[in-house]
Design goal:
Layout: E1 19-22, E2 27-32, E3 46-49, E4 54-55, E5 58-59, E6 66-68, H1 75-78, E7 84-90, E8 92-98, E9 104-106, E10 110-115, H2 120-126, H3 130-138, H4 150-155, E11 157-160, H5 163-200, E12 222-225, H6 226-229, E13 230-233, E14 243-250, E15 253-258, E16 267-271, E17 280-282, E18 287-288, E19 292-297, H7 303-312, H8 329-333, E20 336-339, H9 342-379
Parallel strand pairs: 3-9, 14-18
Antiparallel strand pairs: 1-11, 2-10, 3-6, 4-5, 7-8, 7-10, 12-20, 13-19, 14-15, 16-17, 16-19
Length: about 375
């Protein structure tokens, strides 16, 4: 039995208990899309979407999205409006997006919720609270593919305040979402900038100079085998070691810390098996597991440049497996690369280190904002 009927954190001026309501009481209609396959058309301009198209509050159209003509749309599709929230209800449960006038036709894994007596921004945040999510997950149907029924959504119990308090809460979280979206866009821009520099500051295939270069550097880059500039070292099992302060890295990054090390020299980690396309910059001392090679620089080569170079290489091209992706020392050794003189390597390495640091900072700030929102969702709802 639930006793707390007021939130832990509340805007000044609001008092009294929140009222127990069902989600459906705050809506005009809750429905879903087509239970079947529409007739696709190369001339259509209506995007056929499902729950996987609902990402971070927006309808995401991609190159896999198929289109239909307007006569395929149901009347419900055509009546979607600014008070409509879309939610994934099949497979992935609970992804949300605002409807903003997009020309879409809904599939069965996308539900629409047209908000009426609840404030729509409040409702959008309410659907993200842990209590609502838990109720949804505890009332799914299906075995292999889980489904959230429309009746379950309508009858979901919750607590809501008066409309003025709803509006204040909805506005507050809307501003927080805008901040998160801004940081996400800045992070995306930084990553795109890095990819652009990787394309322009390394020679294209068949060429010996890059398109963009620091002033003062001329002459061609020299072709080498990767094994001529990097030494590929094998990782080892760590389970015989005790806990300590030496980090252990796997293909997914940091795992734990132990009391011994494999290397006293900074290195580049690259997957031997499993995830083979995720280079890591490893600060010594460290240990790597047997599925992660660590590559140290040979004489007269810059580690930060080599790390940028590792981010440029298409590692999947050198996959030797027919199942789980894998790389061998010999395949890595024989990858052809072009490199400049040490001074130019150093300049390029520093540039990409600055970009990586900026990306890491934005990722931390974004994670902190998301955690802040999560905490407020816990404390500002009943």
């Amino acid at each position: 039995m639930r006793n707390r009927l007021t939130p832990s954190i509340r805007f000044a001026g609001f008092t009294g208990n929140w009222e127990k309501r069902k989600l459906g009481e705050g809506t005009i209609k809750i429905g879903d899309g087509l239970h079947g396959t529409p007739k696709y058309s190369t001339n259509g301009n209506i995007a056929f979407i499902n729950g996987n198209n609902l990402v971070n509050g927006k309808i995401m159209i991609n190159n896999q999205t198929k289109y239909v003509t307007s006569d395929q749309q149901s009347q419900d599709d055509k009546k979607l409006n600014e008070n409509t929230i879309l939610m994934s209800i099949n497979g992935t449960i609970g992804n949300l997006a605002w409807y903003n006038g997009e020309k879409v036709m809904l599939g069965k894994s996308a539900a629409y919720i047209e908000v009426s007596s609840f404030d729509k921004k409040f409702m959008y945040q309410l659907l993200q609270t842990s209590n609502i999510k838990s109720y949804f997950l505890n009332n799914l149907t299906g075995t292999t593919i889980k489904n959230l029924g429309l009746k379950t959504i309508r009858e979901t119990p919750t607590f809501v305040p008066k409309i003025n308090e709803q509006k204040r809460i909805g506005q507050f979280f809307n501003q927080l979402d805008d901040m998160i979206a801004l940081h996400q866009q800045e992070l995306t821009t930084l990553k795109q900038t890095k990819q652009g520099f990787l394309q322009k500051m390394f020679p294209k295939e068949g060429e010996s100079v890059p398109e963009v270069r620091f002033p003062g550097f001329t002459g061609t880059w020299k072709e080498h085998k990767l094994g001529e500039i990097l030494k590929i070292n094998s990782g080892r099992d760590y389970k015989h070691l005790q806990l300590g302060n030496i980090p252990v890295y796997g293909t997914g990054g940091y795992m734990l810390s132990v009391n011994d090390k494999l290397s006293d020299e900074d290195a580049i980690g690259i997957g031997r098996k499993g995830t083979i396309n995720n280079p890591q910059l490893l600060k010594a001392p460290f240990w790597t597991v047997d599925t992660l090679f660590y590559m140290t620089t040979k004489e007269k080569n810059d580690l930060l440049f080599c790390y940028a170079l590792a981010n440029k290489i298409n590692w999947k091209k050198y996959d030797e497996s027919t199942g789980v992706p894998s790389l061998s020392k010999s395949s890595i050794d024989n990858i052809s690369v072009s490199i400049p003189v040490l001074a130019e390597q150093h300049k390029i390495g520093i540039l990409f280190k600055l970009l990586d640091d900026a990306i890491a900072l934005h990722e931390r700030e974004l994670d902190a904002l998301k955690e802040t929102k999560k905490a407020f969702l816990q404390k500002m709802f009943v």
